[in-house]
Specification:
The protein is 35% helix and 19% strand. It is built from 9 helices and 6 strands; from the N terminus they run βααααβαβαβαβαβα. The model has no long low-confidence stretch (mean pLDDT 96).
Length: 202
């Protein structure tokens, strides 16, 4: 007897921080010479999966790291981030700006959520909108594997989402850090490649 085809209406491809300011050469990180080839390659690698999700009724949800502007437009930047990324300045990762947006290659998202910390669940509306959309399964792609991706995946797991991490759909600033982070997520998430996930669509 043939098995019923898998349905995707409760599943989202969660794109963590694949924003122009992180990835595009003209973005904040690119202008500061902070890019990495592995990070730049993620959108093209994940695009076929995003297209398949749309075609089969799944959701595309993007998270957007945000530097909230304060008085005079100067952004609130946490002390640890100032130490790590002293090049960040006014206008970078500003809400509704070009740099803040999802890279064109993966647009449009069905849902976009601003975030202010590593985890996309921290002080954001992500949990609420996923619940409203009826999403219980997450396929996670994004940057960086050891930062926003890892924190978001762990927070999703404790909220009882079924999580799959795309081992080749995430990236860090070096391959060793990426590989260690992926292995560390195995206890709380399924690990799969983009090709393995695409195969589920038949």
């Amino acid at each position: 007897m043939n098995e019923a085809p898998e349905t995707w209406s409760d599943c989202a491809l969660l794109l963590c921080d694949l924003q122009n300011d992180f990835i595009h050469p003209d973005g904040a990180y690119g202008r500061a010479g902070q890019g990495a080839a592995a990070i730049a390659a993620v959108p093209a690698r994940v695009k076929p999966l995003a297209d398949a999700m749309r075609a089969h009724g799944g959701w595309i949800v993007s998270t957007h790291f945000t530097l909230v502007p304060g008085r005079g437009g100067e952004p609130f930047i946490s002390p640890h981030l100032k130490r790590l990324r002293p090049f960040l300045k006014r206008g970078d990762f500003a809400p509704a700006s070009w740099g803040h947006a999802l890279v064109d290659e993966l647009c449009p998202p069905d849902i976009a959520v601003e975030k202010i910390a590593y985890s996309a669940f921290y002080m954001s509306r992500l949990d609420w909108v996923l619940g409203r959309a009826g999403i219980r399964r997450l396929i996670v792609s994004g940057i960086v594997t050891n930062g926003g991706v890892a924190s978001t995946v762990r927070d999703a797991a404790v909220r009882d989402f079924e999580v799959t991490v795309l081992s080749d759909g995430c990236a860090a600033f070096d391959d060793v850090t990426h590989e260690i982070a992926v292995k560390a997520l195995a206890p709380v998430a399924k690990i799969a490649t983009v090709a393995e996930t695409l195969a589920r669509f038949g």
